[in-house]
What we know:
Elements: H1 2-24, H2 29-48, H3 56-78, H4 88-105, H5 107-111, E1 125-139, E2 148-159
Antiparallel strand pairs: 1-2
Helix pairs in contact: 1-4, 2-3, 3-4
Amino acid sequence: xxxxxxxxxxxxxxxxxxxxxxxxxxxxxxxxxxxxxxxxxxxxxxxxxxxxxxxxxxxxxxxxxxxxxxxxxxxxxxxxxxxxxxxxxxxxxxxxxxxxxxxxxxxxxxxxxxxxxxxxxxxxxxxxxxxxxxxxxxxxxxxxxxxxxxxxxxxxxxxx
Length: 160
């Protein structure tokens, strides 16, 4: 749920940036920089207050988001010499590609939601038994020693 809300927030901010670019008829790097660094600040605050934990689900998002920030900064310093304006279709294509990239980075957080295992509620502990059964009617086909087939069995039950 947190991943979906964060995804929608990032898409909404990118849409606002697209609208600002179309309205101003140029590429306002300082506004983009401010919005994107504010998202980074929000991510840091949410992490510090344990709203969500950084796990493998958010590593791709972090990598892609830092890449977007890096590209934004490099294009800002590169464009100080020249000003280039993009037409509306180019801006919209950039917006769609950025939304697809951000959406791709949220796939792990949506497919693997935060999991909290249930605690035990009974008074009994869990007993684990491990056994190896030997099937004397069949020979193991993956072994060259012509041994009988061995099957490992694990079972869990209450320790009475």
